[in-house]
Design goal:
This protein is an alpha+beta fold. The protein contains seven helices and 15 strands. It folds into two domains: about 110 residues, Aminotransferase class 4, branched-chain amino acid transferase, N-terminal domain (D-amino Acid Aminotransferase, Chain A, domain 1); about 160 residues, D-amino Acid Aminotransferase, subunit A, domain 2 (D-amino Acid Aminotransferase, Chain A, domain 2, Alpha-Beta Barrel), CATH 3.20.10.10. Helix 5 crosses helix 7. The longest helix is centred in the C-terminal third of the chain and has 16 residues. The radius of gyration is 19 Å and the shape is globular. The model has no long low-confidence stretch (mean pLDDT about 95).
């Protein structure tokens, strides 16, 4: 298995210790991260991922994240991987700190890792019994405080799945633990709005943009328009379900709570459009402000 590690300004041995035992990313989960896929030997959508990382750093008050340094680190990891890297992760933490929630004064810890993990071929989803807090301090931030998601994925695996779909505190459809959700119903494709508390997924955003450019009826819904009961429509066959993420693309959900699902024709078109555009445009720029 290929593992390439960049930390502290240079490539490191994968077995080398690069994080302090007092690092707040380890002790209190005080950090942010981005996971990027590699398509045809190129990291996909780095500009958008680095912009989201910068947004997360600003929200969390992590000062000193340098996009140009990170681009250089990405290039070093990809070169060292010699074409075998298929997934890349950037992790930035607040660095070493005291035992407690208050941060220390040390520099940020930055680690970039490239591996050759396979792309998930199918999605088997279950409904999670917990709810996402759409008003939390970290809502919309891709934080390393991921224990909540780890618990939900473990729950999904116990139920024979690999992804859990969660509602927000209002009972509205929100997201998966590592995905955004799209539904095909009543002749259109819809996805929960960011106000639901879901992450602003890179693939979610591109699917909305590229789908609309292709003339597909795709949109983010109004807040509260989709409740979790819409998943009953999916099981009944009156709607169709897909998930999106950097590693999955736009992927049909094969089963929900153990029930076999059929792909939606509009979602199939959206998935095909995404793959075509991603191949032609490996680093799409930031969306235009309206």
């Amino acid at each position: 298995m290929t593992i390439v590690v960049w930390a502290g300004g240079s490539l490191r041995d994968p077995d080398e210790a690069v994080v302090s035992s007092l690092d707040h990313g380890l002790t209190v989960g005080d950090g942010i991260f981005e996971t990027m896929t590699v398509r045809d030997g190129r990291v996909f959508a780095p500009t958008r991922h680095l912009a989201r990382l910068a947004y997360g750093a600003d929200r969390m008050g992590l000062v000193g994240v340098d996009a140009e340094v990170l681009r250089g680190a990405i290039d070093e990891v990809m070169e060292a991987g010699r074409g075998s890297v298929t997934r890349l992760r950037i992790t930035v933490t607040s660095g070493p700190g005291p035992m407690g929630s208050a941060r220390g004064d040390g520099p940020l810890t930055t680690v970039v890792v490239g591996i050759d993990a396979a792309r998930p071929r199918m999605c088997h989803a279950v409904r999670a019994p917990w709810r996402r807090n759409e008003r939390g301090a970290l809502t919309g931030v891709k934080s390393t405080s991921y224990a909540e998601n780890a618990v939900m994925v473990a729950y999904a695996r116990d139920k024979g799945g690999d992804e859990a779909i969660v509602a927000n505190t209002q009972g509205h459809l929100c997201e998966g633990t590592a995905t955004n959700v799209f539904l095909e119903r009543a002749g259109e494709i819809v996805t929960p709005p960011l106000a639901s508390g879901c992450l602003a997924g890179i693939t979610r955003g591109l699917a909305l943009e590229w789908g609309a450019m292709a003339g597909l009826p795709v949109r983010a819904t109004a807040p509260g328009e989709l409740t979790m009961s819409v998943l009953d429509e999916v099981i009944a066959g009156d709607a169709h379900l897909a998930v999106t993420s950097s590693t999955r693309g736009v992927q049909h959900v094969s089963t929900l709570d153990g029930h076999d699902l059929t792909p939606g024709p509009l979602l199939r078109k959206l998935s095909a459009q995404f793959e075509l555009r991603a191949e032609a445009e490996p680093d799409p720029g930031l969306p235009r402000r309206k």
